[in-house]
Amino acid sequence: MIETAEADTGVVRVVLNRPTARNALTPAGLEDLASTIEAADEREAVAVVALQGAGEAFCAGADLDAVAELDRETGADFARLGQRVARTIEDCETPVVAAIDGPAMGGGLELALACDLRVATPRSTFGEPGVTFGLFGAWGGTVRLPRIVGDGNAMDLALSGRTIDAETARRMGLVSRIVDDPMAVATTLAENPLETMAILADRIRDRDTLSTQEQREAVAFGESVERHRDDVRALRE
């Protein structure tokens, strides 16, 4: 269900490959995704991990056939599993780009929220439709969505269950760019020094106090200067 493809561009593609189900995720699929992401993050000479869906959707979220069999206890376990997968994505040392082409709904949107960058095509759509049948995004969505789009927009999407288009998502800050080929963005990013990419991702993700973040930023900058001093000097010539 989860496949990887590595090009010579410094990008590893992690592909949700269940197109007939719009790449909906079962518990087994989530476990597979977590292990695949971890393996991709450990590869050498990789600057970017790109998460994408096969076929006409990015990801429809949780497989409803699996959800229909859950009870109170197993439902909570399923939510914890999705949260763990989202944290696995969020904790990657390598920057992770959600290359979104088509619908990213429910859990699919939540996985995209865990990525460092979300790049969409014009035909992409986004939503948290769970409220319409009595559920909600529980793979960290109630935490990450307001952090990224603000409380007002998060409440709107979560309480209405409405679907928004790519341009609306861009205006909200949910996606950074709308392009014809999101993978081209990942490839361009991978042209930068991979150590610096990893440092930047780590610094921007930091949720510690401002003073602690600044201290870590200064140390990381000093290390980068030491590593790339010759490159900087070459720019002056």
UniProtKB/TrEMBL annotation:
PROSITE patterns: ENOYL_COA_HYDRATASE (PS00166)
GO molecular function terms listed in the Swiss-Prot or TrEMBL record: catalytic activity
SUPFAM superfamilies for this protein: ClpP/crotonase
Pfam family, one: ECH_1
Basic and acidic residues: bias regions: 224-237
CDD domains per UniProt: crotonase-like
Segments for region (Disordered): 215-237
Family: Belongs to the enoyl-CoA hydratase/isomerase family.
Full protein name: Enoyl-CoA hydratase/carnithine racemase
